[in-house]
Amino acid sequence: MEGSGGADGLHSRLLAWDEALTAPLRVVALPGSPRAPGSRAVQVLALCLAHSGDIYAWCALCVAAWFLGDDAWKLRGLLVATGLVAAQALVSLVKYVVRRQRPPGTAGRTYRKIDPYSFPSGHGARASMLIILSCAMGPVPLALAVCLWSPAMLWSRVAIGVHYVLDICGGLLLGAGVGGLLVWLTPVAAEWAQRLASVMR
């Protein structure tokens, strides 16, 4: 019983610490709060950044890379698409095991309706996976753009109140594992990309 109580106490302190880290980053009002901590312009910016990390947007970019790009872009598109699917599957599995509820609030209704759980962050997993792949495969301007975009997008997920800070950290770790695995499998993916491209020509 003492061990259980100790574990429960540690868990409670960790959650309290996480909430304390999260609160100053929010730009939308908590339920019952008289005013939002951020201006309307900042809230709109945060919402736009949050949606820029949606899986649908990146799937569309992968399709464009495949049909409009050369062999190098086809490989990038194939690897990223594979990473999107793998990361999302792992995130969903962990979410339904942990079942941590999203922070209270009304912003991000679409996310709350589709997925009520917050840990780990799927957007966080996508961000670290994309950073690793873009840095490994280039081109340099793409890698720089992804590295600059990712922190702003991740901030937005906390800012609109759909994630805690530790949700983002968990997602980053998971996505880093997926990204590292994909870099290791790049030679195999390149062969598959060439075969697919030859069939579709």
Secondary-structure map:
Elements: H1 2-22, H2 40-52, H3 55-68, H4 71-98, H5 109-114, H6 122-137, H7 140-159, H8 165-184, H9 186-200
Helix pairs in contact: 2-7, 3-4, 4-6, 4-8, 4-9, 6-7, 6-8
Question: Can you walk through the features of this model?
Answer:
It is built from 9 helices and no strands. The protein is mainly alpha-helical and 201 residues long. The protein has a single domain, classed as Up-down Bundle (Vanadium-containing Chloroperoxidase, domain 1). The mean pLDDT is 88.
At a glance:
The protein is an all-alpha fold. Helices cover 76% and strands 0% of the residues. The protein has one domain (2-200): Vanadium-containing Chloroperoxidase, domain 1 (Up-down Bundle), CATH 1.20.144.
Q: Please, what is the average pLDDT? A: 88
What's the end-to-end separation, in Å? 66 Å
Largest sheet at a glance? Answer: none
Radius of gyration: 19 Å
Structural class: mainly alpha
Counting DSSP H or I runs of 4 or more residues, the number of helices is 9
Overall CATH class: Mainly Alpha
Overall body shape: globular
Percent of residues in helices: over 70%
CATH domain fold name: Vanadium-containing Chloroperoxidase, domain 1
Keywords for this entry:
mainly alpha, Vanadium-containing Chloroperoxidase, domain 1
